[in-house]
Specification:
mainly alpha, three-stranded antiparallel beta sheet
């Protein structure tokens, strides 16, 4: 004699019933939200944003997954990478409110200091030179897979650069290059004297 599925559900524990009811409700809500895209032949990826944002994200997630699989096969341990400088800074304007990478760098350093102070003091906060790396070399490293050599002041790399004059930020003592970088990132009142793109002077 076959048992009615509803009777089986009634015999289960309250936690099990809640789990299945919640799962069923979630699936129905998800189907209601996304069926319109299937019916209309639409996608969640905006055409103008696909290459710059979503494709880069898919490539990064693919690299992330391969790294997890490689570690699992080599060491027989499941290790999930928690942080990777190759993400870069300022790669998506939707993640912030400004196109000024110096402001993005300063904000990243400030947030990392807040995290160090209030969340986990075992991890040191970012330095301004590390933030500069994330904003330049790290972003350029991604495009190396596509034959583009950008993000470094080295032979063979495309020169994309801004020449900034920080003489207006006067002080009684001499600053190191790292200190001048940090001062400019926080104050940002220097003058733009030259601009280069692909080695060609634009300004």
């Amino acid at each position: 004699m076959k048992t009615n599925p509803l009777e089986k559900m009634k015999k289960r524990s309250p936690r099990t019933r809640f789990f299945w009811c919640y799962t069923l409700g979630f699936l129905l809500c998800a189907a209601g939200c996304y069926c319109w895209f299937l019916i209309k032949g639409k996608t969640l990826i905006v055409d103008s944003d696909g290459w710059r944002q979503h494709f880069a994200a898919f490539v990064y997630l693919g690299q992330y997954g391969r790294e997890v699989a490689r570690t699992l096969l080599a060491t027989h341990k499941l290790v999930l990478p928690q942080w990777d400088f190759s993400i870069g800074l300022g790669s998506d304007v939707a993640g912030g409110h400004t196109l000024d990478l110096f402001t993005v760098m300063a904000t990243a350093v400030q947030v990392s200091k807040l995290r160090w102070r209030y969340v986990d003091q075992r991890e040191k906060p970012l330095t301004m030179t590390e933030a500069l790396y994330m904003a330049t070399v790290s972003g350029g490293d991604f495009w190396a897979d596509f034959g583009e050599k950008v993000g470094l002041f080295e032979e063979g790399y495309a020169l994309d650069a801004l020449v900034l004059d920080d003489d207006s930020l006067k002080n009684m003592r001499t600053f190191t290059p790292a200190e001048r970088l940090e001062r400019y990132a926080y104050l940002g009142k220097g003058a733009l004297t030259a601009k280069f793109a692909q080695g060609k002077k634009l300004l």
